[in-house]
Amino acid sequence: MRIKPLAFALTAAFGMTLAAPAFAQETREFSVSTVLSDAFPWGQAAEKWAELVNERSEGRLTLKVYPNAQLVSGDQTREFSAMRSGLIDMAVASTINWSPQVPELNLFSLPFLMPDEAAIDAITQGSTGEKIFTAIDKKGVMPLAWGENGFRELSNSKHPIDSPEDVQGLKVRVVGSPLFLDTFSTLGANPTQMSWADAKPALTTGAIDGQENPLSVFDVARVDQVGQSYLTLWHYMADPLVFGVNKKVWKSLSEEDQTLLQQAAIDAGAWEIEKSRNELDDTLAAIKERGVEVTELTPEQHQAFVDATAEVYQKWTPRIGAELVAEAQAAIAAR
Hints:
Elements: E1 2-6, E2 10-11, E3 17-18, E4 25-33, H1 41-56, E5 61-66, H2 79-85, E6 90-94, H3 95-98, H4 117-124, H5 127-138, E7 141-156, E8 171-174, H6 178-186, E9 190-193, H7 196-205, E10 210-214, H8 215-220, E11 230-233, E12 238-246, H9 247-252, H10 255-289, E13 293-296, H11 299-308, H12 310-320, H13 322-333
Parallel strand pairs: 4-5, 4-6, 8-9, 8-10, 11-13
Antiparallel strand pairs: 1-4, 2-3, 6-12, 7-10, 7-11, 7-12
Helix pairs in contact: 1-10, 4-13
Protein name: C4-dicarboxylate ABC transporter
Pfam families: DctP
Organism: Oceanisphaera arctica
Protein backbone atom coordinates (compact mmCIF):
# COMPACT_ATOMS: atom_id res chain seq x y z
CA MET A 1 0.00 0.00 0.00
CA ARG A 2 1.30 3.43 -0.90
CA ILE A 3 0.07 6.80 0.43
CA LYS A 4 0.48 9.94 -1.64
CA PRO A 5 -0.34 13.49 -0.35
CA LEU A 6 -1.98 15.88 -2.79
CA ALA A 7 -0.94 19.48 -2.07
CA PHE A 8 -3.19 22.37 -2.98
CA ALA A 9 -2.13 26.00 -3.56
CA LEU A 10 -4.11 29.14 -4.13
CA THR A 11 -2.81 31.60 -6.67
CA ALA A 12 -4.04 35.18 -6.23
CA ALA A 13 -4.64 37.70 -8.92
CA PHE A 14 -1.79 39.87 -10.24
CA GLY A 15 0.59 36.93 -10.06
CA MET A 16 0.81 36.88 -6.26
CA THR A 17 0.90 33.45 -4.58
CA LEU A 18 -0.83 33.13 -1.23
CA ALA A 19 -0.20 30.38 1.31
CA ALA A 20 -2.53 27.39 0.95
CA PRO A 21 -4.67 26.25 3.86
CA ALA A 22 -2.99 23.50 5.86
CA PHE A 23 -5.01 20.62 4.50
CA ALA A 24 -4.31 17.81 2.08
CA GLN A 25 -6.37 15.07 0.54
CA GLU A 26 -4.89 11.61 0.95
CA THR A 27 -4.92 9.04 -1.81
CA ARG A 28 -4.19 5.40 -1.09
CA GLU A 29 -3.17 2.56 -3.38
CA PHE A 30 -3.72 -1.08 -2.47
CA SER A 31 -2.50 -4.30 -4.02
CA VAL A 32 -5.10 -6.85 -5.18
CA SER A 33 -4.05 -10.43 -5.87
CA THR A 34 -5.76 -12.74 -8.37
CA VAL A 35 -4.68 -16.03 -9.93
CA LEU A 36 -6.06 -15.30 -13.40
CA SER A 37 -5.87 -12.18 -15.58
CA ASP A 38 -8.73 -10.14 -16.97
CA ALA A 39 -8.88 -12.47 -19.96
CA PHE A 40 -10.90 -14.64 -17.55
CA PRO A 41 -14.04 -13.81 -15.52
CA TRP A 42 -11.99 -14.15 -12.32
CA GLY A 43 -9.61 -11.38 -13.34
CA GLN A 44 -12.49 -9.33 -14.69
CA ALA A 45 -14.08 -9.42 -11.23
CA ALA A 46 -10.96 -7.85 -9.72
CA GLU A 47 -10.73 -5.20 -12.43
CA LYS A 48 -14.42 -4.35 -11.99
CA TRP A 49 -13.90 -3.93 -8.26
CA ALA A 50 -10.95 -1.62 -8.90
CA GLU A 51 -12.96 0.37 -11.42
CA LEU A 52 -15.93 0.86 -9.06
CA VAL A 53 -13.75 1.82 -6.09
CA ASN A 54 -11.80 4.37 -8.11
CA GLU A 55 -14.98 5.84 -9.54
CA ARG A 56 -16.93 6.02 -6.27
CA SER A 57 -14.00 7.40 -4.25
CA GLU A 58 -13.27 9.95 -6.99
CA GLY A 59 -9.72 8.68 -7.22
CA ARG A 60 -8.91 8.70 -3.50
CA LEU A 61 -8.70 4.90 -3.38
CA THR A 62 -6.88 2.91 -6.05
CA LEU A 63 -6.80 -0.86 -6.32
CA LYS A 64 -3.88 -2.16 -8.38
CA VAL A 65 -4.56 -5.68 -9.62
CA TYR A 66 -1.69 -8.19 -9.78
CA PRO A 67 -2.82 -11.24 -11.79
CA ASN A 68 -1.22 -14.67 -12.20
CA ALA A 69 -0.52 -14.94 -8.45
CA GLN A 70 2.60 -12.85 -9.06
CA LEU A 71 2.60 -11.48 -5.50
CA VAL A 72 3.24 -15.03 -4.24
CA SER A 73 5.59 -16.08 -7.05
CA GLY A 74 2.89 -18.13 -8.73
CA ASP A 75 2.10 -20.28 -5.69
CA GLN A 76 -1.59 -19.55 -5.29
CA THR A 77 -1.94 -21.59 -2.08
CA ARG A 78 0.31 -19.05 -0.28
CA GLU A 79 -2.06 -16.17 -1.00
CA PHE A 80 -4.10 -16.32 2.20
CA SER A 81 -1.03 -16.44 4.44
CA ALA A 82 0.58 -13.57 2.52
CA MET A 83 -2.58 -11.55 2.84
CA ARG A 84 -2.97 -12.26 6.54
CA SER A 85 0.63 -11.17 7.17
CA GLY A 86 0.19 -7.92 5.23
CA LEU A 87 2.25 -8.74 2.14
CA ILE A 88 -0.97 -8.46 0.12
CA ASP A 89 -3.61 -5.83 0.84
CA MET A 90 -6.60 -7.39 -0.90
CA ALA A 91 -7.57 -10.30 -3.12
CA VAL A 92 -10.26 -11.83 -5.25
CA ALA A 93 -9.52 -15.42 -4.36
CA SER A 94 -10.68 -18.96 -4.92
CA THR A 95 -12.19 -20.81 -2.00
CA ILE A 96 -9.96 -23.73 -3.03
CA ASN A 97 -6.74 -21.78 -2.59
CA TRP A 98 -7.74 -20.51 0.85
CA SER A 99 -9.08 -23.87 2.07
CA PRO A 100 -5.75 -25.08 3.59
CA GLN A 101 -5.97 -22.19 6.07
CA VAL A 102 -9.78 -22.06 6.39
CA PRO A 103 -11.09 -25.66 6.60
CA GLU A 104 -14.72 -24.58 6.23
CA LEU A 105 -14.01 -23.51 2.64
CA ASN A 106 -13.52 -27.18 1.74
CA LEU A 107 -17.31 -27.38 1.80
CA PHE A 108 -17.41 -26.19 -1.80
CA SER A 109 -14.96 -28.91 -2.87
CA LEU A 110 -17.01 -31.82 -1.56
CA PRO A 111 -17.70 -33.89 -4.69
CA PHE A 112 -21.14 -33.47 -6.22
CA LEU A 113 -22.54 -31.44 -3.30
CA MET A 114 -23.94 -28.69 -5.55
CA PRO A 115 -25.84 -29.90 -8.62
CA ASP A 116 -26.58 -26.49 -10.13
CA GLU A 117 -26.17 -22.73 -9.80
CA ALA A 118 -29.22 -22.45 -7.53
CA ALA A 119 -27.41 -24.76 -5.10
CA ILE A 120 -24.35 -22.49 -5.08
CA ASP A 121 -26.58 -19.50 -4.33
CA ALA A 122 -28.40 -21.41 -1.59
CA ILE A 123 -25.09 -21.71 0.24
CA THR A 124 -23.37 -18.40 -0.48
CA GLN A 125 -26.44 -16.19 -0.11
CA GLY A 126 -27.78 -17.79 3.04
CA SER A 127 -26.79 -18.45 6.63
CA THR A 128 -24.20 -21.04 5.55
CA GLY A 129 -22.37 -18.38 3.58
CA GLU A 130 -22.46 -16.05 6.57
CA LYS A 131 -20.89 -18.73 8.78
CA ILE A 132 -18.16 -19.32 6.21
CA PHE A 133 -17.42 -15.60 6.14
CA THR A 134 -17.20 -15.65 9.94
CA ALA A 135 -14.65 -18.48 9.70
CA ILE A 136 -12.54 -16.47 7.22
CA ASP A 137 -12.75 -13.43 9.50
CA LYS A 138 -11.55 -15.46 12.49
CA LYS A 139 -8.53 -16.62 10.49
CA GLY A 140 -7.39 -13.04 9.93
CA VAL A 141 -8.88 -11.80 6.64
CA MET A 142 -11.98 -9.63 6.22
CA PRO A 143 -14.35 -11.17 3.62
CA LEU A 144 -16.55 -8.71 1.74
CA ALA A 145 -18.43 -10.43 -1.08
CA TRP A 146 -18.81 -13.51 -3.28
CA GLY A 147 -17.83 -13.99 -6.90
CA GLU A 148 -17.73 -17.14 -9.01
CA ASN A 149 -15.19 -19.19 -10.95
CA GLY A 150 -17.81 -21.75 -11.97
CA PHE A 151 -18.29 -25.50 -11.99
CA ARG A 152 -15.12 -27.45 -12.63
CA GLU A 153 -15.32 -29.93 -15.51
CA LEU A 154 -12.93 -32.76 -16.38
CA SER A 155 -10.84 -33.00 -19.55
CA ASN A 156 -8.25 -35.49 -20.74
CA SER A 157 -6.21 -36.56 -23.75
CA LYS A 158 -7.04 -40.28 -23.73
CA HIS A 159 -10.75 -41.05 -24.11
CA PRO A 160 -14.31 -39.95 -23.33
CA ILE A 161 -15.31 -40.22 -19.68
CA ASP A 162 -18.85 -41.18 -18.69
CA SER A 163 -18.24 -43.58 -15.79
CA PRO A 164 -15.95 -43.79 -12.76
CA GLU A 165 -14.08 -46.62 -14.45
CA ASP A 166 -13.00 -44.27 -17.22
CA VAL A 167 -11.07 -42.15 -14.72
CA GLN A 168 -8.99 -45.04 -13.40
CA GLY A 169 -5.27 -44.73 -14.10
CA LEU A 170 -5.46 -41.20 -15.54
CA LYS A 171 -2.79 -38.74 -14.42
CA VAL A 172 -4.83 -35.66 -13.54
CA ARG A 173 -3.54 -32.25 -12.51
CA VAL A 174 -5.32 -30.93 -9.43
CA VAL A 175 -4.93 -27.81 -7.31
CA GLY A 176 -3.06 -27.81 -4.01
CA SER A 177 -5.86 -29.19 -1.87
CA PRO A 178 -5.75 -32.56 -0.11
CA LEU A 179 -9.49 -32.98 -0.69
CA PHE A 180 -8.89 -33.00 -4.46
CA LEU A 181 -6.25 -35.66 -4.04
CA ASP A 182 -8.68 -37.78 -2.05
CA THR A 183 -11.52 -37.36 -4.56
CA PHE A 184 -9.46 -38.41 -7.56
CA SER A 185 -7.64 -41.16 -5.68
CA THR A 186 -11.02 -42.56 -4.65
CA LEU A 187 -11.94 -42.70 -8.34
CA GLY A 188 -8.73 -44.61 -9.09
CA ALA A 189 -6.90 -41.78 -10.84
CA ASN A 190 -3.34 -40.63 -10.20
CA PRO A 191 -3.79 -37.00 -9.13
CA THR A 192 -0.83 -34.63 -9.22
CA GLN A 193 -0.79 -31.29 -7.42
CA MET A 194 0.66 -28.40 -9.40
CA SER A 195 0.05 -24.71 -9.94
CA TRP A 196 -1.80 -23.59 -13.06
CA ALA A 197 1.44 -22.00 -14.30
CA ASP A 198 2.99 -25.48 -14.44
CA ALA A 199 -0.08 -27.31 -15.70
CA LYS A 200 -0.05 -26.34 -19.37
CA PRO A 201 3.60 -27.35 -19.93
CA ALA A 202 2.85 -30.67 -18.24
CA LEU A 203 -0.16 -31.20 -20.49
CA THR A 204 1.91 -30.31 -23.54
CA THR A 205 4.59 -32.89 -22.77
CA GLY A 206 2.12 -35.55 -21.74
CA ALA A 207 3.44 -35.64 -18.19
CA ILE A 208 -0.20 -35.52 -17.15
CA ASP A 209 -3.26 -36.78 -19.01
CA GLY A 210 -5.95 -34.43 -17.81
CA GLN A 211 -7.08 -31.48 -15.72
CA GLU A 212 -10.24 -30.05 -14.19
CA ASN A 213 -11.29 -26.42 -14.50
CA PRO A 214 -14.29 -24.21 -15.26
CA LEU A 215 -15.30 -23.92 -18.92
CA SER A 216 -14.08 -20.32 -19.05
CA VAL A 217 -10.55 -21.44 -18.16
CA PHE A 218 -10.61 -24.32 -20.65
CA ASP A 219 -11.77 -21.91 -23.35
CA VAL A 220 -9.55 -18.86 -22.81
CA ALA A 221 -6.44 -20.88 -21.96
CA ARG A 222 -7.03 -22.99 -25.09
CA VAL A 223 -6.48 -26.22 -23.20
CA ASP A 224 -7.63 -28.06 -26.33
CA GLN A 225 -4.35 -27.01 -27.95
CA VAL A 226 -2.37 -29.10 -25.46
CA GLY A 227 -4.04 -32.40 -26.24
CA GLN A 228 -7.22 -32.07 -24.17
CA SER A 229 -9.58 -33.53 -26.76
CA TYR A 230 -12.20 -34.95 -24.39
CA LEU A 231 -14.30 -32.89 -21.99
CA THR A 232 -16.85 -34.25 -19.50
CA LEU A 233 -19.47 -31.96 -18.00
CA TRP A 234 -19.85 -33.56 -14.60
CA HIS A 235 -20.29 -30.49 -12.34
CA TYR A 236 -18.43 -32.27 -9.57
CA MET A 237 -17.73 -29.10 -7.60
CA ALA A 238 -18.06 -25.34 -7.89
CA ASP A 239 -15.48 -22.70 -7.14
CA PRO A 240 -16.85 -19.50 -5.57
CA LEU A 241 -14.57 -16.49 -5.33
CA VAL A 242 -14.12 -14.34 -2.23
CA PHE A 243 -13.36 -10.61 -2.22
CA GLY A 244 -11.21 -10.08 0.87
CA VAL A 245 -9.11 -7.45 2.66
CA ASN A 246 -6.18 -7.64 5.07
CA LYS A 247 -7.46 -6.88 8.58
CA LYS A 248 -4.97 -4.07 9.28
CA VAL A 249 -5.85 -2.37 5.99
CA TRP A 250 -9.55 -2.75 6.74
CA LYS A 251 -9.24 -1.18 10.19
CA SER A 252 -7.22 1.71 8.77
CA LEU A 253 -10.14 2.76 6.58
CA SER A 254 -12.85 5.15 7.68
CA GLU A 255 -16.32 3.70 8.16
CA GLU A 256 -17.38 5.52 5.00
CA ASP A 257 -14.57 3.96 2.96
CA GLN A 258 -15.23 0.52 4.43
CA THR A 259 -18.82 0.78 3.21
CA LEU A 260 -17.67 2.02 -0.19
CA LEU A 261 -15.15 -0.80 -0.57
CA GLN A 262 -17.57 -3.53 0.46
CA GLN A 263 -20.46 -2.30 -1.67
CA ALA A 264 -18.15 -2.07 -4.67
CA ALA A 265 -17.08 -5.68 -4.01
CA ILE A 266 -20.70 -6.83 -3.74
CA ASP A 267 -21.58 -5.05 -6.98
CA ALA A 268 -18.50 -6.34 -8.81
CA GLY A 269 -19.22 -9.88 -7.62
CA ALA A 270 -22.85 -9.77 -8.72
CA TRP A 271 -21.80 -8.34 -12.10
CA GLU A 272 -19.18 -11.06 -12.61
CA ILE A 273 -21.48 -13.93 -11.55
CA GLU A 274 -24.21 -12.83 -13.95
CA LYS A 275 -21.73 -12.28 -16.77
CA SER A 276 -20.05 -15.66 -16.24
CA ARG A 277 -23.30 -17.59 -16.18
CA ASN A 278 -24.70 -15.82 -19.20
CA GLU A 279 -21.59 -16.66 -21.25
CA LEU A 280 -21.55 -20.41 -20.51
CA ASP A 281 -23.61 -21.52 -23.52
CA ASP A 282 -21.49 -19.54 -25.97
CA THR A 283 -18.30 -20.77 -24.31
CA LEU A 284 -19.36 -24.41 -24.62
CA ALA A 285 -20.36 -23.88 -28.26
CA ALA A 286 -16.94 -22.40 -29.02
CA ILE A 287 -15.21 -25.37 -27.40
CA LYS A 288 -17.27 -27.84 -29.43
CA GLU A 289 -16.54 -25.93 -32.65
CA ARG A 290 -12.83 -26.50 -32.07
CA GLY A 291 -13.38 -30.24 -32.25
CA VAL A 292 -13.41 -31.12 -28.57
CA GLU A 293 -15.62 -34.15 -27.85
CA VAL A 294 -17.99 -33.13 -25.07
CA THR A 295 -19.74 -35.70 -22.88
CA GLU A 296 -22.80 -34.68 -20.88
CA LEU A 297 -23.70 -37.22 -18.21
CA THR A 298 -27.14 -38.75 -17.93
CA PRO A 299 -28.72 -38.72 -14.43
CA GLU A 300 -27.74 -42.38 -14.03
CA GLN A 301 -24.14 -41.75 -15.04
CA HIS A 302 -23.97 -38.76 -12.70
CA GLN A 303 -25.27 -40.85 -9.81
CA ALA A 304 -22.55 -43.43 -10.43
CA PHE A 305 -19.93 -40.75 -9.74
CA VAL A 306 -21.83 -39.59 -6.66
CA ASP A 307 -21.84 -43.12 -5.29
CA ALA A 308 -18.16 -43.68 -6.18
CA THR A 309 -17.03 -40.63 -4.17
CA ALA A 310 -19.32 -41.00 -1.16
CA GLU A 311 -16.48 -42.12 1.10
CA VAL A 312 -14.79 -38.74 0.68
CA TYR A 313 -17.58 -37.27 2.84
CA GLN A 314 -16.78 -39.67 5.68
CA LYS A 315 -13.24 -38.29 5.90
CA TRP A 316 -13.88 -34.63 5.20
CA THR A 317 -17.20 -33.84 6.90
CA PRO A 318 -15.61 -33.83 10.39
CA ARG A 319 -12.80 -31.56 9.14
CA ILE A 320 -15.20 -29.07 7.59
CA GLY A 321 -17.75 -29.30 10.38
CA ALA A 322 -20.66 -31.72 10.44
CA GLU A 323 -23.17 -28.98 11.30
CA LEU A 324 -21.98 -26.76 8.45
CA VAL A 325 -22.19 -29.61 5.93
CA ALA A 326 -25.68 -30.57 7.15
CA GLU A 327 -26.84 -26.96 6.96
CA ALA A 328 -25.53 -26.64 3.40
CA GLN A 329 -27.23 -29.86 2.36
CA ALA A 330 -30.52 -28.66 3.87
CA ALA A 331 -30.24 -25.30 2.10
CA ILE A 332 -29.63 -27.07 -1.22
CA ALA A 333 -32.58 -29.40 -0.68
CA ALA A 334 -34.84 -26.42 0.05
CA ARG A 335 -33.73 -24.35 -2.94
